UniProtKB/TrEMBL annotation:
It is a multi-pass membrane protein. It comes from Dermacoccus abyssi. The lineage of its organism: Bacteria, Bacillati, Actinomycetota, Actinomycetes, Micrococcales. It comes from the Bacteria. It holds the Pfam family AA_permease. This is APC family permease. Residues 59-418 form the Amino acid permease/ SLC12A domain. The keyword Transmembrane applies. The chain crosses the membrane at residues 30-52, 64-84, 105-133, 145-162, 169-191, 211-235, 255-275, 316-338, 358-380, 392-417, 450-469, 481-504. PANTHER family: AMINO ACID PERMEASE, AMINO ACID TRANSPORTER-RELATED. Its main location: membrane. It is found in: Membrane.
């Protein structure tokens, strides 16, 4: 949407039949939620992130910390979904910021999003390679190099990303269901056998200490909140699929809330049972004994409560969980590139969709090519797949997306404030629809469009700033020059984004005026 009337020829160019479009009307709330929950990778978070957060953060207070992060993200979702009800674009963060804070800020958000999601996706190849190689060595009897496993996943993801989104949803649905199932089986076994190693019987030794204020504030709560926030990254990508959603005004908000609630409840309950299974008093010391790889903790619990066979299955599903996250982030990057190519911020070819699949195939192939280059670079230089590739890039991606979430919340406040002031003008201005012009006029509306997003901007911004100050600890090397080099890439992305927006204004001012525009009137449901 635009706050000013647009020239008819510009409007015609933006909606012409020459513009490639995604396959609309294909995804419901549950399908989108599956995709974004896949990006959050629940099994990966519980096996990889939670034990490290317990060790470096607040120990037995991690379940309480997850509840706090869930509450913060639900607060963010209030304004985010209010915007989603009035603005449909696969550009997501970029589109919201461009509409709320104008085009230069939109360009900055666009390139920051590309940096963040590409970093998350490519970094996960390191974890997948290590997990898959470990499974092959321990269960199948051969020991492939990590990079070989990563490139197998890279090839499969390249094919799935090229095809229509329905196929990716089916694959992700199966993988997410399986990873939830194995962890739920472990949860049930811990309840059935009791905590402290399962020697006390049904529901015994299930301590409520993890939800106490003392447990919450033990150790480093700030580090715990940072690691826990990283476990949710991906949930906010619901809006990326808005142009492929059934009734996007309702589907996307429902999917966003569904994803946050499911992930939050799952993380809090599972980590509570993990703490109880070990015992709150011995948790941190035991994790310290597992150094340098405390991520084996969940598998250790699996062996105790489910047996060795279940542990092997869990090891396999850990690898497939990372694969699901890889595919979900690949799809997100492809759609961002499609949106930015369509609007002229990156080469226009990237804004094309496949003639048959209606997928953003050019964006998909570009992301596949970039991932190959980075994988080759880390391989030939002999970098560790987990300590370097995974840790460096996923922490960079998390930081970039945290800043984006704060910026998007500011954009929501600005967007609705501007249109509330133009209510009377809205009816006569065809560039502004009546529902947006009258949004946020009641008490509930002010909460959704002003108060909640303003609070979310402050809280998410504070988390992002603190994460920047602690970046050396987050990548496991407080003395490394990367503690400021990697966060510095976000500033580079911001500058490049502002320059790209300025170049578009000079080259094509009419297209510049339409940056981040609402696309709902262009959607033609696919009935195949």
């Amino acid at each position: 949407m635009s706050s000013a009337p647009l020239h008819d020829d510009a409007r015609e160019r933006a909606t012409s039949g020459d513009e490639h479009r995604l396959r609309s009307g294909r995804l419901g709330s549950v399908a989108i939620a599956f995709i974004v929950v896949s990006a959050a990778a629940p099994l990966t978070a519980m096996a990889g992130g939670a034990p490290v957060a317990m060790l470096l953060g607040n120990g037995p207070g991690i379940p309480f910390a997850y509840l706090i992060v869930s509450a913060l993200l639900l607060l963010f979702a209030v304004g985010y979904t209010a915007m989603a009800r009035h603005h449909t674009s696969t550009g997501a963060f970029y589109a919201y910021v461009a509409r709320g804070l104008k085009q230069p800020a939109g360009g900055a958000a666009a390139w920051t999003a590309l940096l963040g999601y590409n970093s998350m996706q490519i970094g996960l190849y390191g974890l997948f390679g290590a997990a898959a190689a470990s499974f092959c060595a321990e269960t199948l009897g051969f020991n492939p190099p990590w990079w070989a496993c990563s490139f197998v996943a890279w090839a499969i993801i390249g094919v799935l990303g090229y095809r229509q989104v329905d196929l990716s949803v089916k694959v992700l649905g199966i993988l997410v269901a399986l990873e939830f199932l194995i962890v739920l089986l472990l949860d049930v076994a811990i309840v059935g056998k009791g905590g402290n190693g399962g020697t006390g019987g049904f529901a015994s030794n299930l301590s409520m200490e993890p939800f106490s204020f003392g447990a919450l504030t033990s150790g480093s709560l700030a580090i715990a909140l940072l690691f826990n926030s990283a476990s949710y990254i991906g949930f906010e990508s619901t809006t990326i699929y808005s142009e492929e959603a059934k009734d996007p005004r309702r589907t996307v908000p429902r999917a966003t809330y569904l994803a946050v609630i499911v992930i939050g409840v799952f993380y809090s309950i599972t980590t509570w049972l993990m703490v109880s299974a070990q015992g709150p008093s011995t948790l941190v010391s035991h994790l310290g004994e597992l150094k340098p790889d405390p991520t084996v903790f969940l598998f250790e619990l699996g062996g105790t409560y489910l047996g060795s066979t279940a542990t092997q299955v869990m090891s396999l599903l850990f690898a497939t969980s990372v694969f699901a996250a890889l595919l979900a982030f690949h799809n997100a990057v492809a759609r961002y590139l499609y949106a930015l190519g369509r609007e002229g911020l990156v080469p226009r070819k990237l804004g094309h969709t496949h003639a048959l699949h209606l997928s953003p195939h050019m964006g998909s192939m570009s992301q596949t090519a970039l991932a190959a280059v980075v994988l080759l670079l880390f391989t030939v230089t002999g970098q560790d797949p987990v300590l370097n590739l995974f840790t460096w890039l996923t922490q960079l991606g998390t930081l970039a997306i945290l800043f984006l979430m704060s910026l998007a919340s500011v954009a929501v406040v600005a967007f609705f404030a501007r249109y509330r002031g133009e209510r009377r003008k809205a009816a006569a201005d065809e560039a502004v629809t009546a529902d947006v012009a009258t949004a946020g006029t009641g008490a509930g509306g002010m909460w959704r469009t002003a108060v909640a997003p303003a609070l979310a901007a402050v809280f998410m911004g504070a988390v992002a700033v603190y994460a920047t100050s602690q970046f050396g600890n987050l990548i496991g090397n407080p003395e490394s020059a990367l503690r400021w080099v990697l966060p510095g890439l976000i500033l580079v992305a911001v500058v490049v984004g502002i320059i790209s927006a300025a170049a578009l204004k000079k080259r094509d001012p009419e297209r510049w005026a339409l940056m981040g525009k609402d696309r709902v009137d262009e959607l033609v449901p696919d009935h195949h």
